[in-house]
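Board notes (copied after class):
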Amino acid sequence: MKNHLLHAVLIPDGNRRWAKKRGFLPWIGHRSGMRNLEKLLEKWQEIGFPYFTFWGSSWDNLTKRSKREVEFLIKIFEESFNKLAKNKKVHQNEVNIKVIGRWEEIFPESTKRSAKKVMEKTKNYKKFFLTLLMAYDGRQEMISVFKKIVDEVLQKKEKININEKTIERYLWTGELPDVDLIIRTGCEGDPHNSAGFMMWKTSYSQFYFTKTLFPDFSPKEFEKAINDFKKRERRFGK
């Protein structure tokens, strides 16, 4: 019996390595990666599972790399938000788009406006759900949850019942279903997680690792990863 796929995540590793192999500057790899994402989003809608999450950038990506690279990366994000807001297939297929993370602390005003614009234009769609994680760190997400629980206790001045529902209520990603499949590109002998990625939502996730660098991760290989997942047996701790 095939697994039912509700929510897949893509961690796009390898843009800078792709550029280096070709003698390009790092941001050329980022641009190629974002162009490739456009093709993958079309394939996702064609395959038809409802929830797709893309880790566009970590907090470290935007705070620890060179100023020039970060500025170029943010410019690419702004262009992508604007394209998505105008994309006919996004509107025809009713793709609800959300941008999650600490992006508002880092992005310039024009980029923030672009992100808010695409969210506003698609907020009433309920067929497909695209989440773009920007300046995201899973550890920071959990710290934010703890702080909000403490604030609630101080405000109510009484004990509260801390359970799974309490955690879900305060997660940045709380409205998303649990992740069924995590696809990570660019893994050359080092399949790994990063920055506590969506730790609450990935407790029973399956993984698909590939050596293919993200700009070369084709819609065909994307579909292969999805089909591979559907053939697996999931035990959920049983």
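Comment from the instructor: The beta strands are 7-11, 51-55, 95-100, 128-133, 181-184, 206-209. The chain has a mean pLDDT of 95.
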